[in-house]
Amino acid sequence: MDNRPIGVFDSGVGGLSIWRVIRKLLPQESLVFFADSGHVPYGEKSTEELADLTGRITAFLLDEGCKMIVVACNTATVHAIDHLRKRFSDVPFVGVVPVVKTLASRTRTGTIAVLSTPATADSPYLANLIGEFAPDKRVVNVGCDGLEDLVEAGNIRTQQTTALLEKHLAPVQASDADVVGLGCTHYPFLRSRIKSLLGPGVRVYDPSRPVARRVRQLLRESESFASNADPEFRFFTTGDTELFGSVASKLLRFPVADVGYVDL
């Protein structure tokens, strides 16, 4: 047994979609969540900047006693997780990537769609995933400019969000895609809205559950499960602590208070 917490970080509140599934799947694990809201969005930063920021975040989480780090951000995973694994070679890391392999295996029409940030949509990493796992599929690759920012502000059910979703989902609706992957951890908070707009004939997949299952697998392999009868949940941000607490509470439907501020 290992009662130390699991560290989870993202550029903002999106990684809370991963946090909530880990909490549900592993109810005895304590969790430390770090939102680098002071440096959002990550999609506009260079690989060098992301390596530096995520390295400092990882060092902070390790100082908080974390036994494992979940990089709950597609952009950070794509650009920095290899660097983190080399720098912190004795620390287990779990990243998050677009579910291209799952989409390719589940489609019946031969057309799949991926919704992600513009940075991920244009990345060689996603292109390689498509080339490896979906070379014979038609891929509708949509970079959803502005969507992450609305979730970051807690605007889930506004007219502005609906209008932007309708715009970004238009190419998916115009295709015969029957499976859609959410390639940004902010998007699962919009999953019901996306499903409603696309209709019952389209299945929507997000990486939250596979990531949580991978966390469980690594804990099992290292015999590091916790046995906390009353697990502790701590939250930190490099941004506005009150804003983060308010948005996080709304997204999680769980009171998030006493958010710590970190100056990176």
CATH architecture of the largest domain: 3-Layer(aba) Sandwich
At the first level of CATH, the class of the largest domain is: Alpha Beta
User: Structural class of the helix and strand makeup?
Assistant: alpha/beta
Distance between the termini: 32 Å
Strand content: 15-25%
**Rg computed from alpha carbons, rounded to a whole number of angstroms:** 18 Å
Low-pLDDT ranges: none
Mean pLDDT: 95
Strand order in space, largest sheet? 4-3-1-2-9-10
Following the backbone from N to C, one meets helices and strands in this order, namely EHEHEHEHEHHEHHEHEHEHE
Biggest pleated sheet = 6 strands, parallel
CATH topology of the largest domain: Rossmann fold
* Overall tally of domains: 2
What features would you describe in this structure?
The two termini are 32 Å apart. This protein has 2 domains: 6-95 and 209-261, Rossmann fold; 100-206, Rossmann fold (3-Layer(aba) Sandwich), CATH 3.40.50. The strands form 2 sheets. A 6-stranded parallel sheet has the order 4-3-1-2-9-10, with helices on both faces. A 4-stranded parallel sheet has the order 6-5-7-8, sandwiched between helices. It has 11 helices and 10 strands. Strand 9 (233-237), helix 11 and strand 10 form a beta-alpha-beta unit. By secondary structure, the chain is α/β, with parallel strands linked by helices. The chain has helices at 16-25, 47-63, 74-87, 100-106, 118-121, 124-133, 147-152, 159-173, 191-198, 208-221, 241-252; strands spanning 6-10, 31-35, 68-71, 93-94, 111-116, 138-143, 179-182, 203-205, 233-237, 260-261.
